[in-house]
Amino acid sequence: MSERRSGKQSRAGGGPRRREPERRSARDVALGVLTEVDEADAYANLLLPARLRDAGLDPRDASLATELTYGTLRGLGLYDAVAEAAADRHPADLDPRTASAVRMGVHQLLNMRVADHAAVSETVDALRRAGGGRSSGLVNAVLRRVSAHDADTWIERLTADRGADEALALRTSHPAWIVRALRIALRGHGRGGDGLEGALQDVLEADNAPAKVSLAALPGLADRDGLTAVDDLPVARADLSPIGLVLEAGDPRDVPGVADAHVRVQDQGSQLVALALTAADTTAEPTWLDLCAGPGGKTAVLGAVAAGRGGRVRAVDSSEHRTRLVRESTAGTAGIVEAVHADGRTVGRDQAGTFSGVLVDVPCTGLGALRRRPEARWRRRPDDVAALAPLQTELLHSAIAAARPGGIIAYSTCSPHWAETAGIVDDVLGDGEVELLDAPAILSELTGRSAETFASAARGGGRFAQLWPDVHGTDAMFLALLARR
Ligand SMILES: C[S@@+](CC[C@H](N)C(=O)[O-])C[C@H]1O[C@@H](n2cnc3c(N)ncnc32)[C@H](O)[C@@H]1O
Predict the structure, then answer these.
(1) What are phi and psi of 340, to 5 degrees?
(2) What pLDDT is stored for residue 59 in this prediction?
(3) Which end of the chain is less congested by CB atoms within 10 angstroms, N or C?
(4) Angular region, 193: left φ>0, alpha ψ -120 to 50, beta rest
(5) pLDDT in the model for residue 11
């Protein structure tokens, strides 16, 4: 027995020493999350923060684990194609843990500044620690073959006999149907012409760029300027939303006001959509309905503004779990916001002509939020668009029916897809029940930027608004503002 060991045994308190749990590395955490995303359809943006907290990683390792997880998931289409070409093994044919180790290794080899030998050996070690020792030889062999070429060479080889869209899809790691849908969306929303292919490339690249953590300082509840003045707090004013902050580093839970829901993690585009309704409906003591409220990001903004204007908010969601999340999100304005578990499609009939403003942020494909939900692009199917359209239309009709005459309806999606944005609103405009308001002008008032920046030019006379990650630094949110006649 070594002196060191006997010394430890004789420490105060005595007794047999309990084994310290082995500290988990960044690769252990990333491999665990990637495996759960693959086998249990988990969401990386929800799972990773919890796993990082459990592991107690220091900030440097936490950011490495985040890059390994998000980067691997975003690049999955390319990485699977490379693994298959290199070693005749498509990761989808392997068990989730082994497949995740292969993908995480390929990400390090092709897209991170990690030495090849470290990318291979540390990935294999993480796989062994996760209990996947039996596959370690296979993963080692696949990764060694992948390491024979750099990313550009693999892409050149793999795209040589593909069509233009398939090649672009592989290079930017998106499914080809999403590449085509984004091109149609760009053209439809007025970014066509000679610059179309460049704009498409920019949007696809923006989907692959890590998004900074964006926060909303809820009006009347949090002091945005005060927060930016706190020493050692790495937050800055956001450049678009008048209530927005950007967290430059660290954990959002350490920001004052986050614990009591006065400051909330929320994309700036989402903040602007909620604020646009509050700016378009200037009623004193407004009564607002949020018809698809869960998890409550926009409801929290509506609640805070309503509190300052003597108003009320009714927040509806058809999912019980997400209705509970709305209650948590609006803890700062609990007496103002009432969260209700119900089907939004029936509210227009049950509470016809009631509300001064209605937000209908419909369930959609989420193609505008791919940078924040890295696995989403591989889960969505082209059929999802058509499957969601009837629900989106019904919810919009219900929203219009629930608004009182002269009331404002805000229709929004976190997708620029033509069929779930202008396609849905165009149909309803034909009924003559509503008038289309100038959403870009409202966004211009809120942000100080020109209305043209936000205008979706093609239809609606430039009155639809479309945000883009490459232009505005937000999720690609769509907004139409309607007034009930
Ligand atoms: C895009 S999310 C809303 C996001 C939310 N507005 C926010 O900012 O946090 C769409 C929501 O619609 C809900 N939903 C789906 N079908 C619904 C229905 N028939 N009635 C009410 N809510 C519905 C989903 O549960 C989901 O929470």
Answers:
(1) -125, 130
(2) 87
(3) N
(4) left
(5) 36
| Shared domain check, 432 and 287 | yes
Q: What's the CA gap between 416 and 426, in Å, rounded?
A: 14
182 closest CA partner among 167, 162, 202: 202
State phi, psi for 407 to the nearest 5 degrees: -70, 160
- pLDDT at site 249: 87
Number of domains in the chain: 4
Q: Is 414 a catalytic residue?
A: yes
pLDDT tens-digit map of 299-354: 999 999 999 999 999 999 999 999 999 999 999 999 999 999 999 999 999 999 99
Q: Does one domain contain both 102 and 243?
A: no
> Residue 44 sits in which domain range?
26-152
Terminal C-alpha separation, the chain: 87
User: How far, in Å, CA of 439 to CA of 454, rounded?
Assistant: 8
Q: Which of 26, 34, 29, 42 is nearest to 72 (CA)?
A: 34
With a cut of 70, list the residues of the chain below it in pLDDT. 1-22, 458-460
Catalytic residue among 414, 422, 467, 480: 414
**Predicted pLDDT of residue 312:** 98
Same domain, 290 and 377: yes
Pocket of ligand 1, candidates 265, 318, 345, 365: which has the most ligand atoms within 8 Å of its Cβ, to mutate? 318
- Residue 212's φ and ψ, nearest 5 degrees, are -70, 155
- Single-letter amino acid, residue 10: S
Per the annotation, does 297 bind a ligand? yes
Domain co-membership, 449 together with 426:
yes
